[in-house]
């Protein structure tokens, strides 16, 4: 499986979302880096547990901000998008609950899940709403310019 790394193929051309998605990938890459240690000590597992917590905390913040944008622009597929966010959060919460029982196995499974879900979500679901948001932004700009022109 490929290493998690941001590149231009992930850009959806909405600067705030691209910035947040890039940060999300960096946080997930930290989990990958920590999990790559072969003979893990207790301290390594503590760090992996913290990385899982960081992923969940950032995901909640990012999803909330992204959903506010989608609500504000009246994105018609908002509910489906929110469902995917909720599934991700629930899955990461489950990994965190199970982590104390079998940290090595859970770390591997969590990493595998994040490495498949995050690129898919950005390239498929975020990319699906991006043209809609860009058009809405353009129309809002045109409307604002029209108001300024009539003043």
TrEMBL record:
Residues 15-132 form the Hemerythrin-like domain. Keywords: Iron, Metal-binding, Oxygen transport, Transport. PROSITE patterns: HEMERYTHRINS. Signal peptide: none annotated. InterPro entries: Haemerythrin_Fe_BS, Hemerythrin, Hemerythrin-like, Hemerythrin-like_sf, Hemerythrin_metal-bd. The keyword Phosphoprotein does not apply. PANTHER family: BACTERIOHEMERYTHRIN (PTHR37164). This is Hemerythrin-like domain-containing protein. The lineage of its organism: Bacteria, Pseudomonadati, Thermodesulfobacteriota, Desulfobacteria, Desulfobacterales.
